[in-house]
Amino acid sequence: MKTVVLCNQKGGVGKSAVATLLAHHLAQRGRRVLAIDLDHQGNFTRPLRASGRAEPSACTADALLTGPVPPMPLSPFVVVPADRALLNLERQPDQHTPFARRFRSFLASVDAAFDVCVVDTHPNPDIRVIAALVSADFALSPIQLNQEALDGVTGLLNHERVGLRKIKAVLNPKLTLLGLLPTLVEPTPFQKANFQQVVMCYHPLMIRVGERPGDFAAIPKRSCIAEAQAAGEVLWEMKKTAARDAWREIEPSLSRIADLLDGTDRGITPHAQEASHGPAA
Ligand SMILES: Nc1ncnc2c1ncn2[C@@H]1O[C@H](COP(=O)(O)OP(=O)(O)OP(=O)(O)O)[C@@H](O)[C@H]1O
Ligand SMILES: [Mg+2]
């Protein structure tokens, strides 16, 4: 089982929406998917439950850190729902190490039952995010192309508690940044300029979907994505033409992410002009 954690300390950048699309996409590809919602807001739990595709576990996600954990349902698509009890975990600092150890033991215990575990997190850099990152194989970071996008990326990598570089160096050497994933992308001159700036500074951290310059995974802003999330519908099964068009736009990005998780990625050679840019900060 490969575990991927959706993380970014910025709120509202599309973490839960991407987690939901990815979980459905992986399930549709025939992968056995375990979805864990570590955010008490439950924005990953709600659409998965409402879709009727994922079977809820007997316990809520806080139990994965506090124990005991009942057996997971024998289903190829399981969601461990969020609960407000997740809010209590940060207030027990003497328990943080046992919390992280229990979460890691839980993941090890379901290793043979699932192919991929998708973990959604809260923007607060607390013990829930740390517990997830210290046990994960991959981090996937949705970013929004607003004014603070570049500052946000610096924080994501270097935050003193949950910075991906620090976690990798000190606590979890196997942690790999799957990539930065621009989300809620709009074709405005402002966003285009920010996209170019992110590519210039961080292209080695972005997810290639093709060989042309600018061929990086991204999720456009589309009202049907928000509607699918709110109604618990699977985007590509919605009746609207707009939903199918949106799926056509994002399918290459989600497929590439799924390939990277599967380890079946064929690799894409970056355009020479881009490869000559300086190293990522
Ligand atoms: N690509 C998209 N197009 C349109 N709306 C989107 C898209 N992605 C997310 N949204 C909507 O934007 C809002 C924020 O998205 P989401 O909840 O996924 O962000 P988040 O990063 O998980 O937020 P939080 O930090 O609070 O957990 C939601 O209403 C969601 O439905
Ligand atoms: Mg969320």
Automatic annotation (TrEMBL):
InterPro entries: AAA_dom, DNA_Partitioning_ATPase, P-loop_NTPase. Residues 1-175 form the AAA domain. It comes from the Bacteria. This is Cobyrinic acid ac-diamide synthase. It comes from Leptothrix cholodnii (strain ATCC 51168 / LMG 8142 / SP-6).
